[in-house]
Give the backbone structure.
Amino acid sequence: MLGNSCAAGICHAFSSDGRCISLLKILMTNHCSYDCKYCKNRRSNDIPRATFTPEEICTLTIEFYKRNYIEGLFLSSGVLGTPDNTMEKMCEALRMLRTTYKFNGYIHVKAIPGASQELIYSAGLLADRISINMELPTQDSLVLLAPNKSMTTILNPMNQISETIAQHRVAIGKSALMDRAGINKHLVNSIFGPEVANKKLESKNSVSIPLQSTTTMLMNPAEAIDARLKRPFAGAGQSTQMIIGATSETDLQLIRTTQNLYKSFDLKRVFFSGYIPLNEDDALPSLGTPVPLLREHRLYQADWLLRFYGYQADELLTEENPFFNAQIDPKCDWAIRHLDQFPVEVNTASYDMLLRVPGIGPTGVKRIMSARRYSYINFEMLKKMRIVLKRAQYFITCNGKMLNKIPLEQQFITRCIANDEQKDNLLITQPKEEFHQMNLFTDFAFAQ
């Protein structure tokens, strides 16, 4: 009915300022000429196949939007024939949405690795966010599970998109780096490194398309429409996704790759997806293997520390300890392994050190720094500032005193924090609700 705000099959994404955005998340086609071993739609699987026409994609999007089910579109696809053929049809659908249907809502499009620069440029002009799934963090893993893909066909388009976003931002007088809500400016250097903070927009090794050459690059009148729309190129930035648990990479390898992607391509986000066993193959975990939901959760927490807290991958994990502690979050784990730096005095500690105290985030640090200019801070004041004292109490003092008499011992603090997180960990590994992906071949009565 008109006006419904919730429906099965709708993807809920969160913007950088905390808003929840409902997206219609669909594949243009589940036909695929690739044979990636982890994918349900791989070429060798005998499954029903179907393809949306550009007109059908537009009709679906507009009708869902009119009924208030969605605020935008998330469009991906299998590889229909060739990457260029697939990307051209996706651009045709987006172009029709923007021009014929006058749709100005949020669009996230998945670019196809191996597609031409011209088509990726058109997709970036038509969509708000563009992404290329990295899928696996190493070339060896790609050779093992996705023989049709390579790091070159993935990283070259990423570089093109990154450089083009930077050029468009500089052309309108903004910083080459993407805007990141809530990030502390003085942490930019530690997070992205000087090579990105002082990014050069012209490089002899760059595969980007300069703004002044776009008119000569466009191949036909349909593509020329994209440039005349006067939209920013991928205004919401670029992202990617990696599969977790399909191959033997450690958390350290994954988080190092994540850090390098942020530094090299200024990505808005790196997403992690716990592998769901779907296909039988000797190179994959067996069917029935539990989805690594808790591991995925820890990687997301570590990703947050990389982006907003100034941590480095080699601080969070080491070669001797390459996996995150499943029982406690990475920030607590780091603090417990560095008890020689704690407790810190809330009234005198530096901004960066306070930011590394478990239970204190960027907003809490700002409140503490502001309040202590006028008076000494005590634990009652910290409670009013909404500092999570059940974690922070092990690592801070106020006026030289701790909240409780607590021994600074790794095992004791680990046990206390793990007990506090036990309930949340259980909810992650054993969710109350079960979800499944809807498809065109499901009986409608069953879907209802």
Q: What stands out?
A: Confidence is low (pLDDT under 50) at residues 199-219, 444-448. The longest helix spans residues 151-171. The first strand starts at residue 10 and ends at 14. The radius of gyration is 24 Å.
